C-alpha cells in the first residue's frame, strides 16, 4: 500500500520577528529577533487529480500565515508570567521589573504560553489546519510544521489525523 506526503519550504515562507521567552520559572530572555523559515508537510490519500494537495494551495496558505507574523514582535498572551495591557495604540508588557512598550500595529498577540519555536510551529499548524478545513480539504492524515529560527536549529509540530 502506498502513502503520500507533500512538503513545501520556499524562500517566501519566512518571516522576521522579535520575541523573548520566559524559562525555568524565573528567567526571561532579552528581546531579540530571528529570520524564521517555515516548512509544512501533509500526508493523505491522493485526490482524483492524483495529488495529496495542490502545491500552490499549500504555498499560498503558508505564505499568508508567515506574512501575518513578518516584521512583528511576537507576544505570548497565554504566558502567566507576563502582564500584557493594550493601551490605545500601544501594548505594554511587563515581566517582573522589565517593561516593554510597543506600537500596537507592530505586535501580534499569539494564544500560546511562550514564543518558542515549538509553540510557533504548533500555532502555525493550527492556523494552517483552519485554512485547509475552510477550503474543504478534509482527507489529510497528517500535518507537520517546521519552524527554523536559525540555520540548523528548528522545531517540528506534527498532528496525526488517523481515523478521520
Kindly provide the name of the CATH class.
Answer: Alpha Beta
Order of helices and strands: EEEEEHEEEEEHEE
The CATH superfamily bears the name: 6-pyruvoyl tetrahydropterin synthase/QueD
CATH-defined fold name: Tetrahydropterin Synthase, Chain A
Strand tally, please? Answer: 12
Number of domains: 1
SSE layout:
Blueprint: E1 5-8, E2 14-19, E3 22-23, E4 27-28, E5 32-43, H1 55-69, E6 72-76, E7 83-87, E8 90-95, E9 98-103, E10 107-110, H2 117-134, E11 142-150, E12 153-160
Parallel strand pairs: 2-6, 6-10
Antiparallel strand pairs: 1-5, 2-5, 3-4, 5-11, 7-8, 8-9, 11-12
Helix pairs in contact: 1-2
Written account of the structure:
With 164 residues, the protein is of the alpha+beta class. It is built from 2 helices and 12 strands; from the N terminus they run βββββαβββββαββ. It has helices at residues 55-69, 117-134, and strands at 5-8, 14-19, 22-23, 27-28, 32-43, 72-76, 83-87, 90-95, 98-103, 107-110, 142-150, 153-160. Helix 1 packs across helix 2 (117-134). The protein is elongated, with a radius of gyration of 17 Å. The mean pLDDT is 94.
Amino acid at each position: 500500500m502506498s502513502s503520500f506526503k507533500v512538503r513545501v519550504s520556499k524562500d517566501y515562507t519566512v518571516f522576521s520577528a522579535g520575541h523573548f521567552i520566559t524559562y525555568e520559572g524565573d528567567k526571561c530572555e532579552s528581546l531579540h529577533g530571528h529570520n524564521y523559515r517555515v516548512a509544512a508537510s501533509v500526508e493523505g490519500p491522493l485526490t482524483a487529480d492524483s495529488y495529496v494537495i495542490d502545491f500552490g494551495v499549500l504555498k499560498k496558505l503558508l505564505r499568508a500565515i508567515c506574512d501575518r507574523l513578518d516584521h512583528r514582535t511576537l507576544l505570548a498572551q497565554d504566558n502567566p508570567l507576563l502582564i500584557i495591557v493594550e493601551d490605545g495604540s500601544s501594548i505594554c508588557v511587563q515581566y517582573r521589573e522589565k517593561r516593554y512598550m510597543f506600537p500596537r500595529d507592530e505586535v501580534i498577540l499569539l494564544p500560546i504560553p511562550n514564543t518558542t519555536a515549538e509553540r510557533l510551529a504548533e500555532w502555525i499548524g493550527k492556523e494552517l489546519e483552519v485554512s485547509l478545513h475552510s477550503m474543504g480539504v478534509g482527507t489529510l492524515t497528517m500535518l507537520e510544521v517546521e519552524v527554523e529560527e536559525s540555520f540548523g536549529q528548528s522545531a517540528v509540530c506534527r498532528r496525526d489525523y488517523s481515523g478521520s
